[in-house]
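About this split. The held-out portion is used to measure sequence recovery: a designer receives only the structure tokens and must propose an amino acid at every position. Recovery is the fraction of positions where the proposal matches the reference. Here is one held-out target exactly as it appears in the evaluation file.
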């Protein structure tokens, strides 16, 4: 949840500063910088500061070495060091929803600092600041709050750690041994999509349209689809024929085409930035309706319910195809 919480803090904080420039600082400088990096992790390959090359380099040159430095070559018996691991895999209902590399990426801290022994209090302090910020906005807190978490089955989470050696693991997934850098990021995509599909699936009330649940699911899907398009367009020579076929299968569905249509990007921008597009007819906006009545404006062939069903279908299809892609054929 870290990057989504950071998204809510970052974008609303920016909006508050515009509404009232005299507003006292709500976050420390350190926390604001960490929240910003965490929020930007959701852009994946669409990050205009790093782009695809920068994201691949960040994982290769910063996150992976930080984990290797922290978790490898620690065993006093050198002959047993081949058993050491530096990558943890986290699952829900048998599907990977995150890894320790992905978690480091999404939390926004410097990788070495985050993995230093005794770093826990510093991490806690940043999230405590976010909690106080949410409380100031009127958020409901306490263990009795009903959210999507209320629908989860604790028994579906891992009962024991699943730890692997990253150098070996990244050669055995997705695009194969020749592209471990690309495979690292594709594991992030897989975790995000499985998280949206399996964990952020229902609100506290399955019969009710919950804005935040839909927002998380839609934005996750949009950024994954956009990033796969960037990968296909900018790195076609690095992808195997099998990988290209699966990327085309994901992006070629009618639901993916609908969501990625350039004319509908302002809908994504509104969910992301709390801004209405300047071209929207304000007489058609209704804040009492789901998604402010924007669905028929940007997706004229759909009402709210049919659009939600289309998004849900696309999330399921995308997550399923990424699962298929991640599992290299034995004959590879």
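Reference sequence for scoring:
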């Amino acid at each position: 949840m870290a990057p989504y919480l950071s998204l809510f803090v970052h974008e609303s904080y920016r909006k508050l500063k515009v509404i009232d420039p005299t507003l006292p600082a709500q976050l420390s400088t350190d926390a604001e910088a960490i929240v910003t990096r965490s929020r930007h992790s959701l852009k994946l390959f669409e990050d205009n500061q790093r782009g695809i090359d920068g994201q691949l380099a960040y994982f290769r040159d910063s996150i992976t070495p930080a984990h290797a430095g922290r978790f490898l070559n620690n065993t006093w018996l050198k002959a047993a060091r081949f058993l050491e691991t530096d990558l943890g895999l986290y699952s829900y209902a048998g599907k990977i929803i995150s890894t320790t590399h992905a978690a480091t990426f999404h939390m926004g801290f410097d990788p070495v600092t985050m993995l230093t022994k005794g770093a826990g209090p510093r991490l806690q302090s940043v999230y405590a600041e976010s909690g106080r910020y949410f409380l100031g906005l009127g958020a409901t807190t306490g263990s009795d709050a009903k959210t999507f978490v209320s629908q989860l089955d604790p028994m579906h989470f891992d009962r024991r750690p699943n730890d692997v050696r990253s150098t070996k693991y990244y050669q055995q997934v997705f695009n194969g041994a020749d592209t471990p850098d690309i495979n690292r990021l594709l594991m992030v995509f897989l975790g995000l999509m499985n998280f949206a599909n399996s964990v952020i699936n229902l609100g506290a009330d399955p019969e009710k349209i919950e804005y935040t649940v839909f927002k998380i699911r839609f934005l996750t899907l949009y950024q994954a689809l956009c990033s796969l398009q960037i990968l296909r367009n900018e790195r076609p020579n690095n992808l195997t024929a099998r990988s290209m076929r699966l990327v085309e299968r994901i992006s070629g569905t009618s639901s993916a085409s609908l969501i990625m249509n350039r004319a509908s990007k302002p809908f994504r921008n509104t969910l992301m930035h709390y801004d209405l597009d300047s071209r929207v007819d304000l007489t058609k906006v209704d804040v009492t309706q789901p998604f402010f009545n924007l669905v028929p404006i940007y997706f004229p062939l759909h009402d709210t319910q049919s659009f939600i069903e289309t998004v849900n279908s696309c999330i399921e299809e995308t997550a399923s195809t990424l699962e298929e892609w991640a599992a290299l054929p034995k004959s590879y």
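Annotator remark: The two ends are 35 Å apart (CA to CA).
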